[in-house]
Design goal:
Elements (H helix, E strand, L loop, with lengths): L1 E3 L4 E2 L1 E2 L7 E3 L3 E7 L25 E7 L7 E11 L3 E6 L14 E8 L2 E3 L5 E3 L3 E6 L7 E2 L3 E2 L2 E2 L11 E5 L7 E7 L16 E10 L8 E3 L3 E8 L2 H19 L4 H11 L1 E6 L5 E8 H7 L9
Parallel strand pairs: 1-5, 4-6
Antiparallel strand pairs: 2-6, 3-13, 5-18, 6-17, 7-16, 7-18, 8-9, 9-10, 10-11, 12-15, 12-17, 14-15, 16-19, 19-20, 20-22, 21-22
Length: 304
């Protein structure tokens, strides 16, 4: 199995990035990752102002996938997520997050992570739910910072991107140039402080090229739910885009009209927030597979 070292990272997703490895469609790849601060925080007395903000949200890669051409879809099956450190880090600071305007000084926290739980301030214990914050491919146009989400993926900070889920991404350039990073041991919807439980680790994924499939990308699925993901400058626009994408996915792949699809979504679906703290906000629309199955819907389509 191919392993990509966390010494091979990018800070922007770009068609000009040189691939660090080339793999065949169907390959499994292990990505070693740094935390979102490039492992700069080593203790709670780390000076916040001394952090190098040019080294935020590194993504390991990119990997060139053979036979991936613009117009194709990259199917990313997340097989496993593990951690390589027994603590996570978090920060709060003036100007960061949703209510950083009420803070007067930065605070760095070291959060113990062990036995499937994290111990937060105040002795609160929460279960771990490992997820990937930054995951995507090169955009078709100008480079996009790994801190920013968009239609190529990127820093979507969607807490449903976990082991056992499958992410569908557009191929915008030859080889796709796939990369990932920014693991969280756990994170709530919104990521309101601008941090999850930031931690380095390893991620095993299977990368497959899908031909002749038109989808409103990015899309995500697990055993129970189909999701459309969308990022935009405002939360309103991201919410509308995620909803619109799901409505058209249903109408284009079932016998329902667009009006009927919208009605079904209004009763059975959930419009959810991923994050509100990045340069673009991200929402997801969740459709239960119990509904999708009745409509004969599949992200893969007729091949499945």
């Amino acid at each position: 199995m191919i392993r990509i070292s966390n010494e091979q990272v990018i800070y922007a997703m770009s068609r000009d990035n040189q691939p660090v490895a080339t793999v065949k469609s169907g390959s499994e790849v292990v990505f070693e990752t740094c935390d979102c601060f490039s492992d700069q925080i080593t203790a709670e007395d780390t000076v916040f102002q001394a952090l190098d903000w040019q080294r935020i949200n590194p993504a390991t890669g990119p990997v060139f996938v053979e036979d991936a051409q613009p117009g194709d879809v990259l199917r990313v099956t997340i097989k496993q997520i593990s951690f390589t450190r027994e603590h996570a880090v978090m920060v709060t600071a003036p100007g960061l997050g949703v209510i950083g305007d009420e803070l007067h000084a930065p605070q760095v926290s070291i959060i113990p992570v062990a036995n499937g739980k994290a111990r937060l301030t105040g002795g609160i214990e929460v279960p771990l739910r490992p997820m990937i914050g930054v995951i995507g491919v090169a955009p078709a146009g100008e480079p996009i910072s790994c801190g920013t989400p968009d239609s190529h993926g990127g820093n979507m900070d969607c807490k449903e991107i976990v082991a056992g889920s499958t992410l569908w991404l557009p191929v915008n350039v030859p080889g796709a140039l796939f990369a990932l990073g920014d693991l969280h041991a756990a994170m709530g919807d919104g990521e309101v402080s601008v941090c999850g439980l930031e931690i380095p680790g390893e991620v095993t994924v299977k990368l497959e090229v899908v031909k002749n499939r038109t989808l409103p990308l990015p899309m995500l699925e697990n055993d129970h739910t189909l999701f459309t993901l969308a990022s935009a400058l405002t939360l309103d626009d991201a919410a509308a885009m995620a909803t619109r994408n799901m409505a058209h996915f249903i109408a284009d792949n079932s016998d329902l009209s667009l009006a009927e699809a919208i009605s079904v979504m209004s009763i059975t679906g959930d419009l959810q927030i991923c994050q509100v703290v990045d340069p673009l906000k991200t929402c997801r629309f969740a459709l239960p597979k119990t509904v999708a199955d009745q409509l004969g819907l599949s992200v893969v389509g007729v091949e499945e």
